[in-house]
Amino acid sequence: MAMTASVSEVLAVTAPLPALPTTASQWDQALYAFLVEKGNRSGSKRTVESYSRMLWRFFADTTPDRVTPPDVLSYAHGIGQSGKPPSSVTIAARIACLSSYFKFLQRMGLVSSNPCDLVERPQASPSPARGYTAEEVKRLLSVVPDTIRGRRDRAILLVFILTGRRRSEVMGMTAGDIEIEGGTVFYRYRGKGGKQGRRELPRPAWEAIRRTLEDCGKELASMAPEESLHLISGVAPRGGWRGSWTLDEVAGVRPDEAHPDEEAEVAGKAGDAGSDGHS
Q1: DSSP code of 146?
Q2: pTM listed for this prediction
């Protein structure tokens, strides 16, 4: 069956994914198109990577037109690479991911039904994220060195701690996202589902950013709107700022209690996403 025009249009959109071979099957093209759309609408590379891992694994030996509700149930409850039975959060994430993809295929006219609709989903109750205490924040900041790189890392940490934004939102902050009105500093962000917002940036976070700008001989007013606030020192944050976990360990703060489970995050983003194409 030839690829529909709507899928072709989606594939034409630029996305942070490798080029698809011209010999790819119709189903591979459809899956690629879904990931492109997901990335463009969520603005999160991590979301695309998570969906990609789950979907390519599921469709390694089958195609969407052959999937039945028992297939979905078996995959959702199957034991993964950890060798342990999946939690209710993981089960819900797997079903939600597949459901989102099948709803995309329905919109594209490639399938007529969604096998996930007949699968009962567990009531996923992920543990609430545990925030840092004031003492833990002090310990965390105390191990950041007073160097150009260290002050830049301190600014990143303060933005994380005081705004509660996701990693992709913090690391994606640019000069154009900052606005100063009457002495009050605001920042713009792109959250889940591509939703945009504007909030006040706490003074300590702004002062830390301003200090690291000074370290590099820059001023906000003279920076191009697209310039990153966190890559200005010529040294990128370690691992796209996975380096904070190293600081966690040095400071004696356990990262496993402070960072959300990835599949839980996927479940929250997927849900019934795809029913209207605006996940």
Answers
A1: S
A2: 0.53
